[in-house]
Amino acid sequence: MKKTHTPVCYHCGLTTDAHPITGQDGKFFCCQGCLGAFRLIHGFGLSSYYDLRSQGIMGMVVDPEKEKEIIAYDDPEFQKERVRNLPGGIKEAYLLLDGIHCAACVWLNEQILRRVPGVVDAQVNFANFRAIVRWDPEQTSLSQLILALGRVGYKAYPYDQAKVEQVNRNRDRALLGRLGVAAFGAANIMFIAVALYSGTFQGMEPSYRSFFHWVSLIVAIPVFFYSGSLFFQGAWRGLRAGHLTMDFSISLGASVTFTASVVATILGSDKVYFDSVTVFIFVLLLGRYLESIARSKAAGAAERLIGFQPDTAQVIRDGQEQKIILSEVRVDDEVVVRPGERIAVDGWVIQGQTTVDESMLTGETIPVVKYPGSTVAGGTINVDGAIHLRVRRIGAQTTMARIIAAVVDAQGSRHVIHTLADQIAGWFVAIVTTLAGITFILWWHWDPSQALENAVSLLIITCPCALGLATPAAMLVACGVATRKGILIREPDSLERLIKVRQVVLDKTGVVTEGKPKVTQYAPNPTGNVDKRQLLTKAAAVERYSEHPLGRAVVRAFEEENWGELPEATRVKNKPGLGLTAWIDGHEIRVGRIEFVLGDNPDPAFQSPVLQTQQPTTWIACAEDKHFLGWLGLEDCIKSDAKKTVQFLKEKGMTVTLLSGDQQAAVTWTATHIGAHAAIGGVLPETKSHVIATMQADGTRVVMVGDGINDAPALALADVGIAVASASDLSVQSSDMIVLNPGLTPVAFIFSLAWATMRVRRGNLLFSLCYNTLTIPLAIAGLVSPIVAAIAMPLSSLVVVANALRLQKMVTTTP
User: Fold this and answer.
1) Consecutive 10-residue runs of the chain (815 residues): their mean pLDDT?
2) SS (H, E, C) 156-205
3) Which one, of 355, 323, 325, lies nearest residue 339 by Cα?
4) What are the C-alpha distances in Å from 753 to residues 117, 652, 715, 725, 812?
5) How many beta carbons lie within 10 A of that of residue 426, not counting itself?
6) Contact between 582 and 589 (Cβ < 8 Å)
7) Any idea what DSSP says for residue 254?
8) Could you give the CA distance from residue 723 to residue 737 in angstroms, rounded to a whole number?
9) For position 599, what pLDDT does the model report?
10) What is the DSSP letter of 227?
11) 524: which strand partners?
């Protein structure tokens, strides 16, 4: 049976009841809103729908050539790498959106996409301007989704990292241009305003006053029409979707004030407010520019992962080794990986022995021994031995691809938190606009000369500058305070989420521990007349030729003792996965695994340190001419402030869980030592994100503190993700906050800062609402002149900013 399609408005792209209209270029469907607008402007000489569309009156008209380019997005070859096929025949794609600058834009884009017939779901992430859209290909297509957004004024592209950087650069450049014009205009008009205000009280020749007014008008024109166009465009988009936004209120107040000032200048009146208009636009543009710069610096976490995937692989085919691009590698191919190279595919070792750095997967810094039969994952690093692999998984099935998908899905699932100001803006604007109209009508009957003045006074004094700054001011100051403490807040909204958190998840390696091994214990052979100095000196003399993290730790331990120079070692040989052998003064020194040092059947007595210790310690043995010299114990030491920080979080009612890819016994010991409530070990990247999702299942808000690539999906999925100083680049890009200073004390500081910031924000919102509640009746009654209104409006903003600055002294509670 043939499917029926819901009619779609040609101009705005939204679904609507059937309203067929016939124009010069064919038959169209139109919604009631566009039809009403058409009838409203019919008297302007637009006699057909063709005129309406060609003049660009309703929405943005997509250029025919551009439309052909967008339709090409439906090509199956183009979609092969950009569109995913989901169960049930549903398709999914990520879109990059250009033109988003506030939470209202996010809401509009989601509504526009969801109202396109065939769209199953659409979510827009304000953090990276990315939309994830799922649709039924039987009812709509990728090109139709992009065109629907384009007709309302937003540009959308299939997600591509190069396009992201280009769009960010263009957006920031355009915003900086608007900001520069506004700054120039506001500064010069304020100088003129000082003279005009002085003349109001001390007297000024009318000719001079008129001259200053005209100069102010000339300077204000580019500020209003060019710098302010950002708000006018946002207001128009909101109106197209039937939603009153803060941009509408800003545009209305600025437009009425500017228009009244122009009329006053032409008529020779003293009542002009060009200074208020230009300063108002400049302050709001400055806030948006700072926010845009902060966001543009944060590249997508999934794109960062691509750098860990080699572009080529060395494959054995027809008995010959050849380099091919990664996309041409097939399952069961034989791949060669040399020391120091990054492994390109998932597979298992079929020849050779080595150690592999799997810190990107497990977070553990100690490489893992690999021998024939061992599995390896793409993206990990082959440390010290050449190996041959049999390819096990390729493409989207590899470990790296699954991590990328986990990060992308987690970021896409995070919903934007709308601030209170955004939630009430529509009602506020509607009420103020209605009251201004009523004020004008009432005063027109009572005293026509005061009608416009009082209506403008109402719009100026209730202009939602303070309301709009209430949240951004608190957030910006909080970000500044955090920066001085060595904390970078990438997502200011995360402070709001943080106060609702009740579960804190800490990664072990690099977060609770130092993240690198250190020699902490020595067990010289008591029967061999060996002391600590002899044991460490001979072990370090051999290990200085090793690139293994354990070997470097042994050398560091010797250097810290300041015992002078190490003896020269010759004939050094590396046995990947086992240890090193070298000759010193005619004696063979071996360092590494006990079976390598002493042979296949070492004396069980020499294994006693491993069995007796309760700490998670890695032991390496040392022997001279196969005579046992002793053990060196290495640990990943716990940070000095870890226990104190955990205690602080517990006192604030948090549940603290330690999460790691390390063995369960080691994780449990560390959790007990720092006082954590629970310990979960042996988890892989996918498992970590599943643990976070399980905790969130009952509505619990979760904070994840991590540092490794393996933590990236969990950091992205958590309600708040915090990356610590040693974090990998991917973890940084997946997080909401970055702690630059070592230790865990800054984590406790973040909580204190969040609580203080929310108190200040609530105070700002309360003041803003009280201010408007008090000034509205005064303005309606004609008790507030435009000059007083122009002074009171920025003063209200200054009060909000001054209250926010109190944050610099409020945050003192740290463990």
Assistant:
1) 46 47 47 43 34 36 67 81 80 81 66 86 72 90 87 76 66 85 90 75 76 91 91 77 66 80 86 80 73 49 57 86 84 90 89 81 68 83 88 76 56 42 60 84 85 75 67 74 75 81 88 82 82 91 83 88 87 83 91 82 58 66 88 85 92 91 80 91 78 90 81 85 66 71 84 89 85 86 73 73 79 50
2) EEECCHHHHHHHHHHHHHHHHHHHHHHHHHHHHHHHHHHHHHHHHHHCCC
3) 355
4) 45, 14, 20, 19, 9
5) 18
6) yes
7) H
8) 6
9) 74
10) I
11) 630
Residue 436: count other Cβ atoms within 10 Å of its Cβ: 23
Residues 612-617: contacts with CB under 8 Å, at least 24 apart: 613/521, 614/669, 615/669, 616/662, 616/663, 616/665, 616/666, 616/669, 616/670, 617/520, 617/521
Query: Position 605: which residue type?
Result: A
Q: Which residues does residue 503 pair with via DSSP β-bridges, in sequence order?
A: 655, 702
- Both structure tokens of 630: 């002793």
Residue 388 tokens read as: 């041959």
- CA proximity to 288, closest of 298, 296, 278: 296
Distance CA 48, CA 23 (A): 6
Positions marked catalytic: 507
Q: How far apart are CA 565 and CA 567, in angstroms?
A: 6
Please list the residues that pair with 632 across neighbouring strands.
522, 620
* pLDDT for res 162: 56
Q: What is the rounded distance in angstroms from the CA atom of residue 599 to the CA atom of residue 458?
A: 91
Q: How many residues does the chain have?
A: 815
Integer Cα distance of 179 and 168 in angstroms: 16
In the prediction, which pLDDT does 22 show?
45
Helix 786-805 vs helix 448-461: angle between axes, to the nearest 10 degrees?
A: 10
Q: Are 365 and 381 in contact (CB under 8 A)?
A: no
The model's pTM? 0.53
DSSP, res 19: -
pLDDT score at 136: 92
| Residue 462 token pair | 């209730």
pLDDT of 14? 47
**To the nearest 10°, the Cα dihedral for 236, 237, 238, 240?**
90
Question: What are the structure tokens assigned to 367, written together?
Answer: 């490489």
